[in-house]
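Good morning C.,

I know you're traveling, so I'll keep this short. The sequence:
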Amino acid sequence: MKLYEFPSGDTVHKYKKSIVISFKGKRNVLSTGPNNGGFTTDLSAVFNNDANPGDGMEVKLRADTYREHMDILAKEDLGLDPSSCSGLMTVASMDNSAISTLAYNDFSVTSVATAGVRNNGGRIGDPASWHEKSENTFEDTTSSDTKKKNPIQNLTKNISGKIISDKDKLPVGTINILLYIDADLSKEALASALVSCTEAKVAAMQELLIASRYSCGIATGTGTDGA
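The tokens, ready to paste straight into the viewer:
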């Protein structure tokens, strides 16, 4: 289903539990996605995928790593070339995505966002519950007292691993933002835009007074956010 078309001809579609932005030409892209993330100019698409299999069910990957899983998802489910796309994963439904455009003078900025913060909203600086030593090696750093007080923090692995649920199989929240700027920005300007995007997310969390699940402060995001 086509959701949106930009003046450049690039389009936003929703299908197979994903939102996909397809590019009609060469674009400067800065992504936190595990597959082809960072700054690149040779992507044909970016996407945001809902990996939630259903209430009470574990979220499992199709490969040993998050990156390999996203490559398989792109090829088998979305019909994209894994070498020329970058994606994000969440347990938030794409049916609840929000698309907003703000125009100024000769350019516009469009945000396609999904958000879930109920279970793992956190404040920057909160203690971490796991430590990723390598792409597929994790260490649980949560103290036994913390696990007893807050079982939601008792994660076996995060979205980069096999499971992203606690012992009760509660889905972990994520804020993913696909930000499309209808202007030819340099890589330096893109990095600055990503900083502004993050500040906007934090401002929204503050306005909504969303509390951290791990401290007494207001949440600034979740542990698995992407853009």
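Safe travels,
E.
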